[in-house]
Amino acid sequence: xxxxxxINSVAKTFRVLEFISETKNGCTLTELVKRLALSIGSAQRxxxxxxxxxxxxxxxxxxxxxxxxxxxxFGSAFLSQSEIREFALPYMKKLNQDLDEVVNLGILMNDExxxxxxxxxxxxHVLTTNLQVGTRRxxxxxxxxxxxxxxxxETEQRRILNGISFTKNPSKTFRHKGDLWQLLRDIRKxxxxxxxxxxxxxxxxxxxPILNHQSxxxxxxxxxxxxxxxxxxxxxxxxxxxxIEAGKNISQALGNAREKDS
Length: 262
What we know:
Number of domains: 2
Number of strands: 8
CATH class of the largest domain: Alpha Beta
Largest sheet: 6 strands, antiparallel
Strand content: 15-25%
Radius of gyration: 20 Å
CATH superfamily of the largest domain: GAF domain
Distance between the termini: 48 Å
CATH architecture of the largest domain: 2-Layer Sandwich
Order of helices and strands: HHHEEHHEEEHHHEEEHH
CATH topology of the largest domain: Beta-Lactamase
Mean pLDDT: 86
Shape: elongated
Low-confidence stretches: none
Number of helices: 10
């Protein structure tokens, strides 16, 4: 039963977004107009609006259109309310028990921040931080933000990095975007991030990404360890392998085929 009038331009906009989301390598304006039977003028206005709102980006040379990570805030918000927390919780609890360290779960909130959506803080020692569920942190300073960034496409990485203000939120470990770019490459190669926290003094953090069925990073988990408890051999032989295993298990629970096959 029809409930009321619809807005044609909104319907066209969602048709455009749905079509682009279904293409593996993006599409051009010409392809979009042909497949959706839109006028060039109508399609161009929709695309320009979505680019201005940062929901689409256009490759300068090829003019190919892609969705941006801004959409991850919608998908991540939905998943955080249903699947991610539900699937991550048992693995986070086990990791917390095995390591006796605080375990956090975070998602990409926007192009500038990540938000913590769950936290298992039961330990036999004291970890002094003001971190709570709902806390936001600059994406390039957070360990979870770094691993999520590392597992985005190169186009999405560059777009987000271009918007990061090192003046507003300076880093303790790198001064230039080139340094961060190299760090992201290293993280992707290793599959994890390990370093002193840039946000809390006296804390060492380990983090891994959570990948969905499309092998996109939709979240990340980290372990916060007081520097006084850091033992190099134990971290390499136990802490990091257990964290990587937890990340793979959560990713697999979300339908990531790569983790199922590994």
